[in-house]
Specification:
The protein is of the alpha+beta class and 150 residues long. It has one helix and seven strands. The strands form two sheets. It has a five-stranded mixed barrel with strand order 1-2-3-7-4. It is globular, with a radius of gyration of 19 Å.
């Protein structure tokens, strides 16, 4: 009898973990499938304030897989998403920053971009789906550098 309970418990635990393992149910709005179409190459530096920020997983190398993602409100009022290969500065929401062009030496970040996402609240009609904030704006690859406030 104990073996049976163990197998039922093991099946339940494995089944629950497998249900969401590696999969985040993303709300598919008009922005999700067109993120790459809104990409642009950064030619000159931009200045603005961070309104959302997701730090790198680690910065022990120049990995594009562990990139940070910043949503920045520019001085002219536009909003852009900036994917950075690795972020060393201690940035936070509200930081005044400059976005500088960066070379990836022939590598592509398109397949490994980490988006800024958040789950809808429990009372929202789209719960338990997640919303992609960084997908909504024109996006580029750059180095985000904090500026001194003066």
């Amino acid at each position: 009898m104990r073996k049976r309970h163990f197998f039922i418990l093991a099946f339940f635990v494995i089944g629950c973990r497998a249900k969401y393992a590696g999969f985040i149910p993303m709300y598919k709005d008009e922005f999700i499938g067109t993120t790459n179409e809104r990409s642009f190459e950064l030619i000159e530096s931009l200045t603005g304030y961070i309104i959302r920020f997701q730090p790198s997983y680690d910065c022990t190398n120049d990995s594009i897989i562990n990139n940070s993602t910043s949503i920045i409100r520019l001085d002219n009022g536009d909003t852009v998403t900036v994917y950075s290969p690795c972020q060393l500065d201690n940035l936070e929401i509200g930081s005044l920053v400059t976005v500088e062009p960066v070379s990836l030496h022939g590598r592509s970040i398109q397949q490994t971009k980490r988006e800024v996402i958040q789950q809808f609240p429990k009372k929202h009609q789209n719960y338990p789906y997640w919303e992609c904030f960084s997908c909504k704006y024109p996006n580029t690859i750059g180095k985000v550098v904090a500026q001194e406030r003066g």
